[in-house]
Amino acid sequence: MEARHASSTAVGASRSRAAHLFLDDEPKILNDPLALGLSGFDNEAALRTEIEARYAKAAMRLGSEFTQRLFRYPRAMMTMRSRYTEDALDRAIERGVTQYVILGAGLDSFAYRRPDLANRLRIFEVDYPASQQWKQHRLRELHIELPPNLTFIPVDFETQTLANVLTAGGYDPEKPAFLSWLGVTQYLTEEAVFNTLQQIASLASGTEMIFTYVVPESLLNAEDQRFLAINKSGAAKRGEPWVSLFEPASLASRVRALGFTQIMHFSPEEANSRYFVGRTDGLCVPGLEHLMQARVGRVDDPEQEGT
Fold first, then answer.
1. Which CATH number fits domain 8-304: 3.40.50.150, 3.40.50.720, 3.30.70.360, 3.10.20.600?
2. What are the pLDDT digits (tens) for 14-48?
3. What element of type H or E holds 123?
4. How far apart are CA 259 and CA 197, in angstroms?
């Protein structure tokens, strides 16, 4: 990744959140009005033109029916995982959590959409330096003011220690926090993933996290296998290959062995049941990306009890 250039993955995720507002029916899974500008587009017409060009090219190779599903899936995935995480964060804030750490923040807009939390929640955006620099440049272009409760923390997950960079950035290690880690683990080595999870497991009791992971091909149906192959191929061509896939039960065992006392799965089937039933636009998530929620130290919230 070059300096002052955003990750193509981060841009794609933000573009999907923006497209959801224009292309999908009500009710919206996530309302992110800042996603359009953050992903580099000046207006809705520019986004639509770009999507239509990509769609036409893909349809020539894959057929229009599959391409239509292929283009819906990212919109569903990106909005659902953010919605699920932000719903859980709201519950954590009500329990008294005052720190939110967004690992691999990319072009996430939560801090700028929630000025009501300025006096209740400290937010730390943790990401690669180049990606953060591009984002800060784009925020200035859009005249979006940085909220007073936000701190940017540059980090390379493969080489730096998360706990050290957090503390240096003003994070209070004595207080519990809520952490999100969305759309990142497949791009890291297993060693980097579990080193990061180990560091999170050593944080204050009551700390909670949500992260996404991609399951192996063997656990997917034929269409989802095709979607997985297309995503892996595209990521590799962009220079951001997928290198780590996880089987849910095995991952849960390894996460528990790190010291997490509470683990809950949220599968694509559960996501479709909770967020997508009865929709008129065909929006739903495919089977490849799952979420896992884990708590450090204590079990005091029956709503979150899991395997």
1. 3.40.50.150
2. 999 999 999 999 999 999 999 999 999 999 999 99
3. strand 122-127
4. 9
